[in-house]
Amino acid sequence: MSDLILHHYGSSPFAEKTRLMMGLKGLAWRSVTVPMMLPKPDVVALTGGYRRTPFLQVGADIYCDTALIAEVLEQRQPAPSLYPEGVGGQARLLAQWADTDLFWTALPHAMQPDGIKAIFAGAPPEVIKAFAADRRAMSEGTPRISGPDASAALTHYLAWLSDLLQDGRPWLLGAQPSIADLSVYHPLWFVSRAGAMADILAPHEGLKTWMSRVAALGHGERAGKLDGEEAIAVARAGTPAAASVQPGLGFTAGERVSVTPADYARDAVTGVLVGLDTGRVTLARDDERAGRVHVHFPRIGYMLKKQETGA
């Protein structure tokens, strides 16, 4: 079985979510640190243009989006489950809310001036300026709420989450941790690192205790580090897993298609359609550095389109 290779960087909230998945499941993985902002030539060689962090590599298969990464890890090691029996649907729904509404409320709250000072403490002004420009480009055309509006909304969200824990349950959905805990945790983890902006968490002792419990899951076993070139060599030496296109979904195997995130960082990835069902789409790509790779995306949150062909 091929090694799990996580492409990430330390301060990425969604990467923290994925590292905690590894911890909950007790998995070993190898680490590739990717740049926080463009250019990302090694990333593009593997993903074809998808620029979000993190992504998971298993040989010559590249898995994008933490929702899909969670499913891949669940298939690889079913226990302990990210979707415990009896609450699997609730876990998925709460995770979806956390990765969208909660995240896009926590982020602008944390990235107000006092938060930026803490998050980028010691960084040269030009780095902060470049990061801000990079993130503006990622969110171009996507409406975002202001810092004060985000703070007001987050106050309510924290109260709702605290209410879930009032009965003394150790985890958001009961006796076992789930993907819901990891998804709710990572935006609040980012807020907790934002200096004075973390004060919004102070009234919620039960929630902070729960956060400590989630953090204690750890990050699994870091089995070594690779650089980008070494990870590309792993892909080049591998063979992608077989995939198939389910009939009746409006697409045919072998068509040239594009996949684009529906919300932000809307960089299209193009390739040949080799896999499709209601949960996942898989494109085959040939890269001069990485060779033949399969890039996988979830169907939720991504737009699949046929490529126009000239006459």
Automatic annotation (TrEMBL):
Gene Ontology terms for molecular function: transferase activity
Swiss-Prot/TrEMBL keywords: Transferase
UniProt cross-references to Pfam families, sorted A to Z: GST_C_2, GST_N_3
InterPro entries hit by this protein: Glutathione-S-Trfase_C_sf, Glutathione_S-Trfase_N, Thioredoxin-like_sf
Record's protein name: Putative glutathione S-transferase-like protein
Species this chain originates from: Roseateles depolymerans
